[in-house]
Structures are given as structure tokens and as C-alpha cells.
Design brief:
15 helices, alpha+beta, 375 residues, 46% helix, Jelly Rolls, Arc Repressor Mutant, subunit A, 13 strands, three-stranded antiparallel beta sheet, six-stranded antiparallel beta sheet, single chain
Length: 375
């Protein structure tokens, strides 16, 4: 059976218990504690209306607004190191956004959904596998499913927003942003979809106000009960990710990665220079040996340097074939092949048809469109 309490009251009791006893509780533990104390409600209290935009607010004003939102909680559920999306994401939601509770007990855990933690102000303690670090204002961490982690906040001034996304929703809705024809988007997919090992992507954003405004409106949608709120929340988070990918890819870091932020720059360099790039020139530019750089590319993308370059060339070839009237020889030269014959052989091996056959097939499939034609 579900019970109810406001964000503000729940947070008050977490802090009061810590100050009084010196001990901390996890969210499920505090829920059971409040239930046994008779402090949960059988029916939800009246919430403040949330049918407005939450952009032009100070942090304190929005904190007070969140304090008035109502939580639906279920007591007598044990805190566990494995959390399923059905335990925390409401059944009618694909995305669920909360303000991360302060003064909780550290308890590293894993779950089967994606989690995004954004430090809107202050700093927090972040544990990931065998790594511990401090996340500060503007830092944002996308945590892949099945990664052991935890986040704790030790003061009232820090605000961390936690975005929880069903894996199925992430793969179908948000991965379109990472399906662009560039290597960095491909690398994001590889990192976040891989089930072989835990991983995260860590960004640093200077535009904290802009991201806060998006999240504020997303979290307000989570507290609306109409037929539009779920899709609206997805749209806000879609905009959130698009802003990150477009503006902050150069700041990205990866868990336990030897090259740190340099690797995103390597992928971007390949993306921009693949037409004439060799492994030797890439290694010289970044001051690594060819063998070392080749191994790192293979281990972290699942592809060799040669395969990545081929993928980029073929993607551009397909675009030229379907969207332009360029000659085959012109396309070959444009994407870095010395001859049309060489390009055609590689293309046939990849797509099992010649470039001319591919162009004809896809042009034949296109329907003609005449604007304002009479029906």
C-alpha cells in the first residue's frame, strides 16, 4: 500500500535523524521509520499547482517548490544493493526526475536503468566501483546500467538532480541523439550499451543555469497527472541530452580510462580528418605510439582504426549517392579513395552491390513530392 509525504518533510526527517543520532538512513529505511512513527499519510496532501514554467526562479525558490511536491512511498521494503526500475520509476513513467535526498547513508548499489546525476549547486561524494571522487557544480554523470555506484550529500546547500530512465526508453528515444554519423556518438553508444563492464560518462557544463531550467521543468512534469506529462518530460530530457552532445563532448571523461579526456579529442580528430588520415599521422599528432593508440581504439570502441575510417567513408558515400548527383569518381575522391575502382570494390564488399546499383535502388524507392499539389 502506498503512503504519502512531501519532499520537504521527508528531507527534514532524514536530516533530523542524522543530527540526533549521528547515523544515516537509506530512502527505504527512512520510509519504514516514518511509517512506524505514524508520520505518513493515507491520502496525498494537496500539492501546489505545477502548471507553470520553472525557469526564472532562484535556487532557494525552486528548493521550496520541490519541498511542496508529494512523494508516494511504500514502507517495509528492505534497502538492497540491487534496484530494479519497477522499484523506483512509476509504472506510467518512462523518465522520473527527483532531487537527490541529502544526508543518506552510503550504500553502493546497481540497477537496471540509466541514471543521470547533475550537480546544480555545491558538491557531493560519488563512488563508482573502486573509484571515489567529488562531483562539483556543473558536473554531470551518465551511469550505465549494472554499474556499482553511490552518491551522498552532506550539506543543505548542495542540490543534485537525479534523472532515472528506463533502459528500453533510453535505447529507443535518447539513443537517436547518439546515432549521428560521428565517432564520438558511436563511442557513447558503445560505452553505454556494453554489458561487459561498468562505465559512466562524466561531463562538465559551464551553462548550469540553462541545464537547471530544463531539469526544473522536467521534474515538474513528473508531478503532473495528465496525459501529456510523460511525453513532455521525455522531451525536456531529450533537449537536455542534445545540449550536452552538441556543446560539451570535449569535456567528457570515462571510468578508469587511461587517456582521460584526450580520447574524445582523438575520435573528433579522426572524424574531421579521416579522408587523409593514417594511424601513423594520428599517433604522431597525439604523441602516442601506433601500437598503443591502435590498442586503445580497439579496446574502447570494439573496432580497429582501419574499420572506423572505413565506416566514416561508407557513411559519407551513402549520403553522396542518395542526396547528390556526384559522379562515382568524384565521390571516391571526396571520401579519400585514390581510384573509383578501389572505392567500388570496398563499397560492394560492405553493401553487397555496386555504388551505381545502390543509388538506383534508393532513388527508385523515393516518392516524388509536389508541394500544394491538388488531391
Amino acid at each position: 500500500m502506498a503512503y504519502y509525504i512531501t519532499y520537504g518533510e521527508f528531507q527534514y526527517h532524514l536530516k533530523e535523524y542524522y543530527q540526533r543520532t549521528g547515523n544515516r538512513m537509506q530512502f527505504p529505511e527512512m520510509t519504514t521509520y516514518l511509517y512506524r512513527k505514524g508520520l505518513l499519510l493515507d491520502t496525498p496532501p494537496r500539492e501546489q499547482p505545477v502548471n507553470k514554467m520553472y525557469g526564472p526562479m532562484t535556487d532557494d525558490e525552486f528548493d521550496k517548490a520541490i519541498d511542496s511536491f508529494v512523494l508516494s512511498v511504500t514502507p517495509n521494503i528492505s534497502a538492497t544493493s540491487t534496484v530494479n526500475e519497477t522499484d523506483i520509476i512509476p509504472q506510467t513513467r518512462d523518465v522520473y526526475v527527483i532531487r537527490h535526498p541529502r544526508y543518506t547513508r552510503r550504500s553502493p548499489h546497481i540497477h537496471n536503468y540509466f541514471e543521470v546525476d547533475f550537480v546544480a549547486s555545491g558538491q557531493c561524494n560519488f563512488v563508482f566501483e573502486n573509484e571515489e571522487r567529488t562531483l562539483r557544480t556543473g558536473e554531470l554523470c551518465i551511469i550505465a546500467p549494472h554499474s556499482r555506484h553511490d552518491l551522498t550529500i552532506d550539506d543543505d546547500e548542495t542540490t543534485v538532480f537525479c534523472i532515472m530512465i528506463r533502459k528500453s526508453t533510453f535505447n529507443t528515444t535518447f539513443f537517436s541523439l547518439m546515432s549521428q554519423k560521428n565517432l564520438l556518438s558511436y563511442f557513447f553508444r558503445t560505452i553505454l550499451q556494453g554489458n561487459s563492464h561498468a562505465n559512466y560518462l562524466l561531463f562538465y557544463s559551464e551553462d548550469v543555469v540553462w541545464l537547471k531550467n530544463i531539469i526544473r521543468n522536467a521534474i515538474s512534469e513528473c508531478h503532473k497527472g495528465d496525459a501529456f506529462s510523460n511525453n513532455n518530460c521525455i522531451s525536456w530530457i531529450h533537449l537536455f541530452f542534445a545540449h550536452l552532445i552538441r556543446g560539451y563532448s570535449k569535456t567528457v571523461q570515462f571510468y578508469n580510462y587511461q587517456m582521460g579526456t584526450d580520447f574524445s579529442l582523438v575520435l573528433q580528430y579522426i572524424q574531421h580528418n579521416y579522408r587523409t588520415l593514417t594511424l601513423a599521422s594520428l599517433a604522431e599528432f597525439f604523441h602516442y605510439s601506433e601500437a598503443y593508440l591502435s590498442t586503445l581504439i580497439s579496446q574502447n570502441t570494439g573496432c580497429s582504426f582501419t574499420s572506423l575510417v572505413k565506416q566514416l567513408r561508407m557513411a559519407d558515400a551513402v549520403s553522396c549517392l542518395t542526396n547528390t548527383q556526384m559522379k562515382i569518381s568524384e565521390i571516391a575522391e571526396n571520401i579519400g579513395y585514390n581510384s573509383a575502382d578501389h572505392f567500388s570494390r570496398v563499397f560492394r564488399t560492405t553493401y553487397h552491390m555496386s555504388p551505381q546499383e545502390y543509388r538506383k535502388k534508393h532513388q527508385d524507392q523515393e516518392e516524388s513530392f509536389t508541394p500544394f499539389a491538388e488531391i
